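Section 5.1 Outputs to date
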Amino acid sequence: MNKHLKQLIDLSIVDKEIDAFEPQIEEANSKYEAALAKNKSIESDIENLTNEIKEEEVKKAKNELHLAELSAKLEENAKKSSEVKTEREMKSLQLEEEIAKEQITFANEEIERLEKIIEAKKEQIAAAQASLEEFSTSLESVKADVDAKLEAINKERQEVFKKKEKLLADINQKGLAFYQKIRRWAKNTTVVPVEDQACMGCHMLIGDKVYSDVIKGEDITTCPHCGRILYVKADEE
């Protein structure tokens, strides 16, 4: 087999090894990112619940203020009742008193309802905070595990990069430029084998003349259909 073709085959194998590290890195990072997203989600829930409690407390304060105003009104009406001179004035005061008492009842019920909501939300916050504390500890463990995996991957990847550097130092520059031009679009199918007289890049049959050239391996031969670099595996050769 042509020396330059053998170099391009070896280079394509190394490039595939290098590219294979990317999914491993993404998978390792995705575990930490998923855990981090869950952590942030719990923090967001706590923040939302805290804001909701503030809103409920504002409503409660308004009802308490209204309750105080109604109580003052009843006291004022009680004083006025001693000064009433006509039956009409008496009925008017009684009507005002009935309305005020109904409003007091409603305000008390509303305050009680709001207090229950506030208490329930506080319990939710307490549960979320406990969960967050537990998850934060788990997050540190996930981060340590991911860092260890990334370190191992990077160490292995550096070894492959050294292998590639060694290949590039000895490779024919014209052949390398040709390889890189095809790799821009063909990626890891830049150099492909021929099986059953078909290019394993585009899976199209190649003619006898081209197939003969590939078998000889004296020159770099490309697929007439897709332009990928072709070779025959040693066992088929």
